[in-house]
Amino acid sequence: MLGLMQDWPLTVDRIIDHARSWHGGIEVVSRSVEGPMVRTTYREIHGRAKQLSNALLSLGVLPGDRIATLAWNTGRHLEAWYGIMGIGAVCHTLNPRLHADQLCYIINHARDKVIFTDLTFLPILIEHRAKLDCVEHLVVMTDEAHMPADFPALCFETLLAQHSADCAWGGFDENTAAGLCYTSGTTGDPKGVLYSHRSNFLHTLGTMGADVLGISARDVVLPVVPMFLANAWGVAFSAPAAGAKLVMPGQHLDGASVHELIETEGVTFSAAVPTVWRMLLQHLRETGGQLSTLTRVVIGGSAVPEDMVRAFRDDYGVTVTHAWGMTETSPMGTQSSPNRAVAAMDAEEQLRYRLKQGRPPLMIDLKLVDDQEQVLPHDGQASGRLKVSGPFVVREYFREAERDILAADGFFDTGDVATIDDQGYIQITDRAKDVIKSGGEWISSIEIENLAAAHPKAAMTAVVAIPHPKWDERPLLLVQLKPDERADRSEFLQFLDGKIARWWMPDDVVFVDHIPLGATGKIDKKLIREQFKNHVVQPIAAGLSPEEPNAEEAPADAPGPFPPEAAGASPARASTLTMVALSGALMGAYLWRSFGPARR
Ligand code: ADP
Q1: Atom 5 of ligand 1 has which residue's CA nearest to it?
Q2: Domains in the chain and their CATH numbers?
């Protein structure tokens, strides 16, 4: 027997419809790419998105066509986003931080028909256009005054002005594809995650929970995390769904720009990766600035360092929620909001939980398994591969139907190594490919680098495995010092001494000018491993050397004396990144047709 309730497909056009109808006057403020602040409302965004839908239809866009955006977080990007999805086309957000070859590969793999680009990225597209064999139109997200003089492209504002806001949205199955986002390729070839309207809608509902993002109509929300990183962690949906004022930062994500926006617009809630918050905190320290309205920040994408949580809490009265997720989970997987038991603990005890990646919300199920797929206990000790399942978790990668990515139990292997404690909090100790396997035992690179990052002279730290003849791999600590600081290796080793097991002690400390970051703002460990694969370890002062391990410190269940002999230790999995560098050979197929209609 079926229920007798209304059939109301969960399509994302309903989110912006709701914002127009019930929060129509709420502001969306953008720092535009051209420079000035632009103030608009959900009502105007809705109308312009409909005009854009009509423009796309006039260009011959059909349901299911992939329409790409290469853009910062702005009101225009939001209009393109809803205008594309509303007519059943697929909004493919491109990450401009990727290498141009990777971008071209992704555009061609997705068969993007139209690209919406900010002025910022026009030069990249112009330079590499010969490699794109599917793109028919390029739309520059600006007005006529800022259009390039002699390049065949359409002008966003002109296109809108030519079309009415009378357009029917939706009316299709809620499982229709809505968005496409490729993983950055830090763990292999870029893979397309194809979100559906239903998965985005459910993710929005899931993240609106009080223990998740908890965005409300009283909030002023600043998504610093870009829309090209898994839908700005869903904020581009949840802010209009809640009726929150939205502040779009555009291209300037440095500490001073973010601070100015927070203070002038009264931001209460923001979300970003640790790198962005590091820049903001540094700016505040240098200028003596305050955060007068901000109360909550969500930090994710990589592990949040302890000193960052403390600084927000103690110096600025801001609560940090640590979140874990991935493109494949839409992306919110867990959040470190306290439950009743944790909330009853004192501040220092609570901090231990805030530093973990947290608990799954409804619609996310997690499993921790060992190499034999045996489920591991939630004791905070057993560490294994984290698997995930739910209605907004990937089932299959785009155009890779032959590749089976779900195990027999229907779970997706995240590639992360974690523990789960008795409160249900997960802690990510590493990515499976970044984990350091020393003498058959796992060393958490994340834990060491976060502890080292709390050293007062450290701006950023990274820990990677370097090959070792006896133990297979040993940790190497890279330190980027704060400007004008000087330090020697022993300072850092002494700082770590007592905080980690002796056998976790890095074999060496190397000071670098810059720790390389990948396209999603995470430390590019693959590159570092490659750079330091032949690193010759310099002898370190007696007493701090990991070569004098203390058997007592080995974990109780360590196999044999510590570190155990390397026999049986599996070799580190080689990276599978085989990015296809596209050649000019595709030139003949180049289809850019915008030349004619471009400058009407
Ligand atoms: P990519 O895989 O292309 O780098 P994602 O943004 O999808 O892009 O990365 C997801 C991965 O980022 C997770 O599998 C995990 O390894 C890491 N990650 C995300 N959030 C956290 C966090 N809070 N702590 C530690 N690692 C995290």
Answers
A1: 326
A2: 9-27+38-195 (3.40.50.12780), 434-595 (3.30.300.30)
